[in-house]
DNA sequence: AAAATAATTGTGATTATTACACTTATTTTC
DNA sequence: GAAAATAAGTGTAATAATCACAATTATTTT
């Protein structure tokens, strides 16, 4: 994977090293049975073989960074049209042991119902980890993960991106559980309902939950059009 | 400024081009007489000579990205200990006409009272521009600037970073004018006072404004300790 | 001393938040 | 098939925050 370069002007060899190499690493969040999870992959080569890390790869000469991130995500998960945002660049000179490699961190939010690892995976092994069970990761991937988690927590208070983690149709209680899990707080059912419904971001469907052993809850969908209207005049999502 | 490389493995020449070259570009915000301003520099070399752009430069092999940004900022303004944060990386393949160069955007908030352009400037010319008067900039610098402005607007609603733009001691009215200018809204003096004082982030001093031709306002300072306490348990800065 | 200017304080109507308790619908158990 | 269990969904009253003004106070200039 590493390339070797010679500086044509100075003539110096830059051995076993890539000058200013750039990679992408992606934190993929999912939500399953009340738990926030992250998709990790097992490294297939090198000294760190068998250790877990964030999925990532190299940026091609002719593609934008965003496109590279989307491509990598598609190769791994078989999904396109995923919610994906750049976090920031991580560039400690020591972060990668074999040379100077700057990585650009992304985070993605996927609906677990859509996700199917077999679809396009090139990774030896990929697995969802609950946030509390994240192992030691290669390089600075724990730092990137923690940063993205902090970012998700502040973003979700200001923007309704949480919907990207839920199925198309969801109950108010599921939505509340998502907020509780990500923010690490307990909320009041009644007050949550009032607040979220008051925002008018949700559309009630004529459908109900199936296969639950108690009174079935009404299903809702997220109204994109109203969201965009609200975004323009600014709104607040604090709970 | 551009380097030329040969890929040692493939033997291919990569002429007039830097593979994966990385720069830093910095949006430096200041606040002067009620206006939000940005520090731009005039290019001293190349075809774009004379055109304005964001101050920036190359990242050295052995320094972290954050250190590079601080170093560049110090070289230009003579200041260290500036509020500086990474925005994100910009990497459209076409953004730089002579080759693939990815740039990492930063934004800084400086107190104009501290700033002295003569201190360490290497730029041919540097000048503060009001937001409304920003000219056409080189490469994708207008895009970077717009992005940082949007970022500042959302950040300032959630975090009291605005203080970095004001002198050490300021009046409540000055603070309000800062928020009005950045967010582009009008606020009610009375309600603003109540809200900001209620947060307990400000310490009233036994000092007053000098040299004003009317009743002098009390001066306040920002209380860092209380800010950190509040940050831990989370707080909201909406106005 | 009066006028001008802006700081500072006050007020009441409206809306949002919070902590609960209560009612309703559905499924499972006996 | 009635009772128990479970969670959905509604209601309420106290408290706090927001908003749109009006009134008062302290200084400086005329």
Automatic annotation (TrEMBL), chains A, B:
Transmembrane segments: none annotated. The keyword Hydrolase applies. Keywords: Hydrolase. InterPro entries: NUDIX_hydrolase-like_dom_sf, NUDIX_hydrolase_dom, WH-like_DNA-bd_sf, WH_DNA-bd_sf, WHD_NrtR. It comes from the Bacteria. CDD domains: NUDIX_NadM_like. One of its GO terms (molecular function) is hydrolase activity. The keyword Protease does not apply. This is NUDIX hydrolase. The lineage of its organism: Bacteria, Pseudomonadati, Bacteroidota, Flavobacteriia, Flavobacteriales.
């Amino acid at each position: 994977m590493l390339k070797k370069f010679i500086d044509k002007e100075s003539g110096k060899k830059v051995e076993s090293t890539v000058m200013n190499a750039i990679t992408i690493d992606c934190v993929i969040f999912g939500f399953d049975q009340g738990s926030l999870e992250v998709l990790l992959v097992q490294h297939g080569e090198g000294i760190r073989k068998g250790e877990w890390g964030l999925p990532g790869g190299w940026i091609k000469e002719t593609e934008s960074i965003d496109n590279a991130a989307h491509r990598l995500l598609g190769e791994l998960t078989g999904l396109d049209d995923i919610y994906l945002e750049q976090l920031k660049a991580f560039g400690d000179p020591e972060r990668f042991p074999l040379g100077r490699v700057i990585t650009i961190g992304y985070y993605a939010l996927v609906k677990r119902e859509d996700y199917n690892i077999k679809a396009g995976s090139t990774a030896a092994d990929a697995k969802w980890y609950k946030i509390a069970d994240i192992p030691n990761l290669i390089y600075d991937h724990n730092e990137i993960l923690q940063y993205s988690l902090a970012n998700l927590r502040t973003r979700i208070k200001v923007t309704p991106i949480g919907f990207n983690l839920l199925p198309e149709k969801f109950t108010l209680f599921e939505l509340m559980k998502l907020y509780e899990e990500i923010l690490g707080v307990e909320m009041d059912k009644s007050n949550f309902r009032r607040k979220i419904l008051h925002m008018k971001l949700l559309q009630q469907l004529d459908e109900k939950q199936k296969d639950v052993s108690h009174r079935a809850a009404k299903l809702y969908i997220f109204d994109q059009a109203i969201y965009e209207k609200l975004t323009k005049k600014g709104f607040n999502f604090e709970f």
